[in-house]
Sequence to fold (351 residues):
Amino acid sequence: MTKPITLALDAMGGDNAPKQVIRGMDLARERYPNLSFIVFGDEQRIAPLIQRYRRLVDVCKIRHTIDSIADTDKPSQALRRGTNSSMRLAIAAVRDGEAQGVVSAGNTGALLAVAKFVLKTLPGITRPAFTGFFPTVKGESVMLDLGANIDCDADNLVQFAVMGTAFSRAVLGIDRPRVALLNVGAEELKGHEALKNAAEILRKADNPIMDFIGYVEGNDIPAGKADVVVTDGFTGNVALKTAEGTAKLVTTFLRGAFQRSLVSQLGYLLARRAIAALRERIDPRIYNGAMFVGLNGIVVKSHGGADAMGFAAAIGVAHDMVGGNINERIIEDLERVGTPAAQELGQAVAS
Fold:
């Protein structure tokens, strides 16, 4: 029997809160009947919404607060003024052991800042990384960092590789993921020094948890050449936004092409099932839910504009992270790589 999991939810975060948050909870509860929730936000707005869904009534606790963090708030403002916000209290529930993970569609910078302040990082991890999924021709791949760290040194990239490997093993069920560093070419001489040094560390590591395959280029990501793609946050965020924009461009072009003439409209009728399958395959809602790996707790960020289906997907990521014991895996895996971070981990554990 699947073990019970309790998640803390920031019900006031995101463009469509709290309505789509509560609907997403209901969709997630249908898929994951072992879930229960602690919901943080304005009780007068949340309670009537929960009452609409039979699956939620007996598995939700509401923690009332009228404070929330706005999308326009800077991380420093969120830290100073947001001590009673729905986001801060939801994260604190993980720290205090009331919940095993937190999901928010709120301000990304504030979420990272508050989560890092409240939960701290895992032993041996210097920086948490923003981690998410990419659709590929072979299924799905994991990519990090997607925007949390603009500048990264070699040890950061090695830590990202270990954390991405744990993420892939926990969510995608791949025992020995293929791991690669994103570069401007596959040749060993290309790339800046941090990339070259990280590649050298990963090549020399006696590492049974991953299959390091070297460098990949941007076009190798959708081809599914690697299960885990590692890069700095600047490059990763550009790649993510480009992929999202390309998916929207493809659907826009398809819509325009099938509306061009009566013949093309007839073609649409004949191909509508295949088109629906394509739309579902590249639907960003399915891949919604990026995790800040490396924190001493499960923190999942939903897209701010996510609808109920998208928020349910983010809850699903949190569920899988808790069920897959990802933080325990990261600590174990980091010890095996033999980096300066691993040595720091060993000293921390010994003390």
